Amino acid sequence: CTQTGVKPPTFVFFVNDTSLLHFSYQRYLENQLRASFNFDGTGIKMEFRKRKEERMMKRAFLGAGSLGTALTRAVARSGHQVTVYDRKIEIVDEINHFHTNKKYLPELILPTAVEAVHELASAVTGKDLIVFSVPSSAIREMAEKIKHHLTWTEIIVSIAKGVDPQTLKPLSEVIEEILNIEPVILSGPSHAEEVA
């Protein structure tokens, strides 16, 4: 929350536990704010408030392949609401009725809280975080399809590997160009079975 019209400009941060906030991190934040908002030589005020309640985050995974399914399970097990989108109706039905995705991870049982959908708009509308877990060849099309359903407050994550086949640009650049949101990139040398 920012109030740049008040004197001094005030920034309010909501944190889990204010007692764990180290003074050096507060100084770091102050320096970042000064640089970002050109407040050199201007007094600023920072307030740190404890969150009043924990709310369940709403997450969406676009693509129910092996890594998307594994991460869906991990996120759902941590207490968040998870919706997974897939274009194949048979995968959506299997996830919703049997809590499995045997095509990609035959041994994995998904939490009952995971909901699978076949409609992209219902997958992304009202979500706090949206994870692109589709092949690189589908990133551009997926970003174009969801851009009209976003509020631009969502956190966008890409776990797709490779480059855009049309332009050879990194996938993060393609997502940012289309959505005007800089995505978080999650990558590493892991297999879906290890994540699940």
Structure description:
The protein is an alpha/beta fold and 196 residues long. 34% of the residues lie in helices and 19% in strands. Strands 6-5-4-7-8-9 form a six-stranded parallel beta sheet. It has a three-stranded mixed beta sheet with strand order 1-2-3, with no helix packed on it.
Q: Which descriptors apply to this entry?
A:
196 residues; alpha/beta; 6-stranded parallel sheet
What is the strand and helix layout of this fold?
Elements: E1 2-3, E2 10-15, H1 23-37, E3 45-50, E4 58-62, H2 66-77, E5 81-85, H3 89-98, E6 114-117, H4 120-124, E7 129-132, H5 136-146, E8 155-158, H6 171-179, E9 184-185, H7 192-195
Parallel strand pairs: 2-3, 4-5, 4-7, 5-6, 7-8, 8-9
Antiparallel strand pairs: 1-2
Backbone structural class: alpha/beta
What strand line-up does the widest sheet have? 6-5-4-7-8-9
User: N-to-C terminal Cα separation, in Å?
Assistant: 36 Å
* Main sheet makeup: 6 strands, parallel
What does the average pLDDT come to? Answer: 88
Q: Helices and strands, in N-to-C order?
A: EEHEEHEHEHEHEHEH
Give the percentage of residues in beta strands: 15-25%
Give the strand tally.
9
Helical residue percent?
25-40%
Rg (C-alpha, Å): 20 Å
Count of alpha and pi helical runs: 7
Low-confidence stretches: none
Shape: globular
